[in-house]
Every structure is written in C-alpha cells, then in structure tokens.
Write a structure and sequence with these properties.
Layout (H helix, E strand, L loop, with lengths): L4 E6 L13 H18 L4 H7 L1 E12 L8 E11 L5 E10 L4 E13 L4 E3 L3 H8 L3 E7 L1
Parallel strand pairs: 3-7
Antiparallel strand pairs: 1-3, 2-5, 3-4, 4-5, 5-6
Length: 145
C-alpha cells in the first residue's frame, strides 16, 4: 500500500544564508538526503546502488517558498511521488518541508531518472527498486510521465 515517507531534520548552521534563513541550496541538499534515506529504507542504500551500477540523477529541480526557516528550527520532511513512467526509469519526486508549527515552508519538485553508471545513460531500475518507487505515496496531481 502506498505511503508517504517522513523524516525529521533541522536547519543547520551551514544551511543559513546572508538573510539568516535556510538557503535555497540547503533545501536541494536536504531533498537529495531525504530521497536517499527513502531508498535506503527500502533496501537500496548507497552501497547497494553502487553494486547495481546505477544512481539517481536529477535533471530539473523546482522550488516554491512559503515560510522562512531559521537556524536550528526543526523540520518535518515528507517525500511523495509526483510522477513516474511505465518502467520507473524516470520519476518526479516531491519533498515538502514543514515547520514545527505545521506550516508548509518549502516544496521541492525534482525530475530525474536512473543513470547506468557504466553506460552513462538513463536506464530502468531493477524491479525491486521500481516497486519501491511505486509504493511511495502519490501527490494529488500525480502524472504518468
């Protein structure tokens, strides 16, 4: 049964920008961390992806900002599937970052796929990894890519 993936984070010193709130690049880094945490939780840690000779690659990120996040502020990160093609070789993942007060702070949408590390071309993942993507909770506006 599909389910959202959730984890807790906090805004670190190195995440802050000149305006004393979490920087845009910090959200991109956190989004990548959350994606990899999800794959690891489903039996695909970085070492297993390396053994399989594949890795997730992002071709496009889109960020929408709603509320500021300041130093050491706790965050709840929620990962959902926003799009997938038939063989799960291409995906759209959405990371929502919520402040402690429950307000949505930032939404990051990332479009990517699975890179065959030897051929340097996009490829379909093994079926168990494709199943892990299909088992992720979907956004309301999920699309077939």
């Amino acid at each position: 049964m599909p389910a959202d993936f959730e984890t807790s984070l906090f805004a670190r010193w190195g995440d802050m920008d000149f305006n004393a709130h979490m920087a845009n690049t910090a959200y991109l880094d956190a989004s990548a961390d959350v994606r990899l945490m999800y794959f690891s939780s489903r039996g695909f840690p970085a070492a297993e992806l390396a053994r399989l000779g594949i890795g997730p690659v992002v071709r496009r990120d889109e960020i929408d900002y709603y509320r500021e996040v300041r130093l050491l502020e706790p965050l709840r990160a929620v990962l959902r599937l926003a799009g997938l093609n038939a063989d799960a070789g291409r995906f759209r993942l959405q990371n929502d970052f919520y402040r402690e007060d429950g307000q949505l702070a930032v939404r990051v949408r990332s479009e990517g796929g699975w890179l065959d590390l030897a051929r340097r071309k996009l490829t379909a993942p093994p079926e168990a990894l494709a199943a892990a993507l299909r088992e992720l909770g979907q956004t309301e506006d999920f699309v077939t890519l």
